[in-house]
Please model this.
Amino acid sequence: MKLELAIIFLGDSMIAIVGVLPDEVNPLLDALSPRLQVSEILRRPLFRGLIGENEVVITSGCIGKVETACLVQAVLDRFKPDCVLLVGAAGALRQDILFGTVVAGTGYVEYDFSPRINVDSLINPAQDVFSPLLELSNVVCGIIASGDSFISSEATVKKIQETTGAICVDMDSAAAAKVCVENEKPFLSLKVIVDFAGSKAIEQYIENHPKYASIPARLLVEVLGRVVLV
Model:
């Protein structure tokens, strides 16, 4: 049942958090206090409230680049947030990045559209607004490459590494980044590693996603509870 509460704006700043799948944002929803608004956006659940002293709007449910771009743009149009954070899962392109590691994007590229790093689609998250997240000891920074498929071939893994310099792959970060660039909004993708891209990626994803999917959201709850980001 959809519940729409009166919209009460608490201040001049807001953070938008978009999760790829609903269970990837559950720790954030549990941390909302108070919960000011429960509604929908593009037929997806939307929640607004406070985490610490940060006003946040949270939604989820975007598989692939097109859905992600649509959802991020809808949130930007409706709420005019000061920055956007994307949380979800990713596949490592390097064997030394272990399951459960959180990757913070320092750049974003579409490996299945233009397999090179385009200056216009890069975002350097080393801005003051994101520094409390980038300073966490369990966060690794690097380029994230996005495309609309699971990478199930070692040959494809090697090609993506060589052409993009990325350390992990997903289906959404580059699309969200591009939308935020066009809207001049700071953006950061926090992705937890649940598989190694390649021939075993799908079975590893099925096994590990339930274990690790909520880690980026839990990190955000920790930081937002003690720091005002914007």
About this structure: The mean pLDDT is 89. The chain is about 30% helix and 30% strand.
